[in-house]
Design goal:
alpha/beta, six-stranded mixed beta sheet, five-stranded mixed beta sheet, 14 helices
Length: 433
């Protein structure tokens, strides 16, 4: 598929830079280079050219061309690597905008054309979107894996096995009135069981993948004036929370986002939990309890370990209990002080171990859409396997279950029913991508 118009946009970040890249894609990409540079460089080579608006020089630039079928979008593509001054970029964009058949690209339109021209499938597009947004090493690795087709390849393998199983069943259905010399059910069960096990594995690893993509929440929980805000400032390396000797200073949730062992972590400084007659403080305490209950990990700062029981928060296996204000506490128990830094590195090491354990066994399902499609396929495969093992089951119903499972996989990779998700996906892309 090829669009009739040609699109262009700044593909690098806006503002002054050493180099700025303008991308042009579509049937008029090469003619526009001819007008700008006087000649069209050989495909997939870098050539230095003076770009002109008629007789007026605009810039000396590196020009790259990619032929249809061998480019990111699948169309003729030109990249102009300009000097990154704002005026330089604007002058070239202005000239391109005046050329017939060219228009400014919409958000994500280059990538959408790659999808439409079968250069990428839907999970790869979503992986690319996550790669652009990646802030940590774990996010980068996960997004790159999906963008390079890890989930797509799995879906293709599953689909081939299901199609083989369907062909065997259809053969039995077609010759229902004749004696079929071979019982196909053992092979069909083997095929479906293998796919089913892999779907379950992917589903079980979704939670970890989701946490890599969206991050973990770690709540600092404790009574007022136990040192939570001071600890948050020490972890962040700057003053993000107001600290005071007056109990109840923190009334709302304060958040700091960190990169911990390559994983995104949000540390929450919550209001101190205690009985209070102050209406505003009580609201803050209520929010603190609610937020702590839904956080992935809680760090309880206490004067003694038994204080945890008074907070009304269920203790999880991965939660950490530490004595606060280690600089004035004399105890063999684990303690931490944001004021002196004592125990802070140990706390971060323990948090690193916990979050690393939580993301082990992550799968390629990085979005809720992926999970829902795989769960549909798993449900239909489960029904088909039960039918195959039952003596009085109908092959037609089993074949129908398999068709529904294949349809679920097809929707995941974008072979059908994808229009309702495209708008949401591409709205998050930048103009030049």
């Amino acid at each position: 598929m090829e669009n009739g118009d040609t699109i262009f946009a700044l593909a690098s970040a806006r503002g002054r830079a050493g180099v700025a890249v303008i991308r042009v894609s579509g049937p008029e990409a090469f003619p526009c280079v001819l007008l700008l540079a006087g000649t069209i460089p050989a495909p997939r080579t870098t050539s230095l050219r003076t770009l002109r608006d008629g007789d007026e020089p605009l810039d000396q630039a590196l020009v790259l061309t990619f032929e249809k079928g061998a480019s990111f979008t699948g169309e003729d593509v030109v990249e102009l690597h300009l000097h990154g001054g704002v005026a330089v970029v604007q002058s070239v964009l202005s000239v391109l905008g005046k050329m017939p058949g060219l228009r400014t690209a919409e958000p994500g339109e280059f990538t959408r054309r790659a999808l439409e021209n079968n250069r990428m499938d839907l999970p790869q597009v979503e992986g690319l979107a996550d790669l652009i947004e990646a802030e940590t090493e774990a996010q980068r690795k996960q997004a790159l894996k999906v963008m390079r087709g890890s989930l797509s390849e799995k879906c293709d393998q599953w689909r081939k096995k299901l199609m083989r199983a369907m062909a065997l069943l259809e053969a039995v259905i077609d010759f229902a009135d004749e004696d079929v010399p071979v019982d196909v059910r053992p092979e069909v069960i083997e095929l479906l069981t293998a796919v089913y096990a892999q779907l379950i594995e992917q589903i079980s690893g979704h939670k970890a993948s989701e946490r890599i993509r969206d991050g973990f929440e770690v709540a600092l929980v404790g009574a007022p004036n136990i040192g939570k805000s001071t600890l948050l400032n020490a972890i962040a390396g700057r003053d993000v929370a107001i600290t005071s000797e007056i109990a109840g200073t923190t009334r709302d949730v304060i958040e700091v986002r960190l990169d911990l062992v390559g994983l995104p972590i949000t540390i929450l400084d919550l209001a101190g939990i205690r009985e209070s007659s102050d209406e505003i403080e009580s609201l803050g305490i209520g929010r603190a309890v609610e937020r702590a209950n839904v956080s992935d990990i809680r760090v309880f700062l206490v004067e003694k370990e038994s204080d945890v029981d008074s907070f009304g928060i269920h203790l999880h296996e991965d939660d950490i209990i530490a004595l606060g204000k280690a600089d004035i506490v004399d105890s063999l128990a684990f303690s931490v002080s944001g004021k002196t830094g004592q125990g802070v590195d140990t706390l971060l090491d323990r948090l690193s171990a916990v979050v690393s354990g939580k993301v082990s066994g992550s799968s390629s399902l990085i979005r809720q859409r992926h999970l829902e499609a795989i769960e549909k396929a798993e449900h239909n495969l489960s029904s088909a396997i039960l039918g195959l093992k039952a003596e009085d089951s109908l092959n037609e119903l089993i074949a129908a279950d398999l068709r529904f499972a294949v349809a679920a996989l097809d929707s995941l990779v974008g072979r059908l029913d994808i229009e309702d998700v495209l708008g949401e996906i591409f709205a998050g892309f930048c103009i030049g991508k």
